[in-house]
Specification:
By secondary structure, the chain is an alpha/beta fold. Helices cover 40% and strands 22% of the residues. It contains ten helices and eleven strands. Helix 1 (3-15) crosses helix 2, helix 1 (3-15) packs across helix 4 (59-86) and helix 6 crosses helix 10. Keywords: DNA-binding, Transcription, Transcription regulation.
């Protein structure tokens, strides 16, 4: 039995007419009749009741029609899946995010993939620092990452999607919460809250900004992630300089202020240079214009100082 026999049988069963089925199949009617007789002979059953006026399915034919359609549908689904996978349009994408990027950039990424690559499933791995993401990209346990450069080694491809200014996070009752203008030298006497990791790109950027302003930041407390860091700020344990995307985590008791002279940190889409996956290529092609277009990721405005002095 060949697949063509199933297609021929379904065409006759759906039209109940050998002539119309032959036209649909672009096949000579005698050849179609011969193929159906071959199929019946192989099955050992009569599939059609034939008279001079009509053709109808026998009980065996009705059963075989459902089975033949199921087989052909499964084959069609399989062919579609293979083509989609080969074209990078179907599969599971494992993606890492650093810090607040999951809050600021994940919504846009998810919407873009749903619109342009709807058969791609997204597996999100959040709160991964840059070194950890690079290791997972190299091992093949991640397909793409949103991380903060620089990276070690030349085998990680980077597409910078944003250059985020550092902003100030202070307790709502802090003196700087109501100042009209805040600059880095204003932070000289403050106790800082930083990230606990020795590999933190943000810590390094904060240190450079403060040293450019003539002082070294005194880190009195550390936090594993931005959510905990901002909670410590809300608790009055210190101030923090964080990327602009931290505004995606509004927290009662924390006021965000722009800094006139602070540095910035880059955010980049990353993948392993040796990854020849069609899925990764397709996703990068789709995400690049979405992430790099001006205003792609909305940023909340700075908290306005209260002229009356109350938070």
């Amino acid at each position: 039995m060949e697949l063509r026999h199933l297609r021929y049988f379904v065409a006759v069963a759906e039209t109940c007419h050998f002539g119309r089925a032959a036209e649909r199949l672009r096949l000579a009617q005698p050849a179609l009749s011969h193929a159906i007789r071959q199929l019946e002979g192989e099955l050992g059953a009569t599939l059609f009741a034939r008279t001079t006026r009509q053709v109808s399915l026998t009980p065996a034919g009705e059963f075989f029609l459902a089975e033949a359609q199921r087989v052909l549908d499964t084959l069609a689904d399989g062919m579609h899946g293979v083509r989609q996978i080969a074209g990078g349009r179907l599969g599971l994408l494992r993606m890492g995010f650093t810090g607040t990027a999951a809050f600021s950039h994940l919504p846009l990424i998810a919407r873009t993939l749903k619109r342009d690559l709807p058969e791609v499933a997204l597996d999100v791995n959040a709160d991964l620092l840059t070194p950890a993401q690079c290791d997972l990209l190299r091992s093949g346990d991640l397909d793409l990452g949103i991380l903060r450069p620089p990276v070690r080694g030349e085998d990680i491809e980077l597409l910078v999607v944003e250059n985020e200014p550092l902003i100030l996070a202070v307790p709502a009752d802090h003196r700087l919460a109501t100042e009209p203008v805040v600059s880095t030298p204003d932070l000289r006497a403050e106790g800082f809250i930083g990230y606990a990791s020795k590999d933190s790109v943000v810590n390094d950027a904060v240190t450079r900004s403060c040293e450019a302003a003539g002082f070294t930041p005194q880190r009195e407390h550390q936090a594993a992630g931005t959510a905990v860091l901002l909670s410590l700020v809300a608790g009055g344990l210190g101030i923090a300089m964080v990327p602009t995307s931290a505004r995606a985590l509004p927290l009662e008791g924390v006021v965000f202020r722009d800094l006139t002279d602070a540095g910035s940190v880059e955010l980049a889409l990353a993948w392993h240079a040796g990854n020849d996956s069609a899925l990764v290529r397709s996703v990068v092609d789709v995400l690049e214009p979405a992430l790099t277009s001006p205003g792609a990721v909305p940023t909340a405005a700075a908290d306005a100082p209260n002229p009356e002095g109350s938070p």
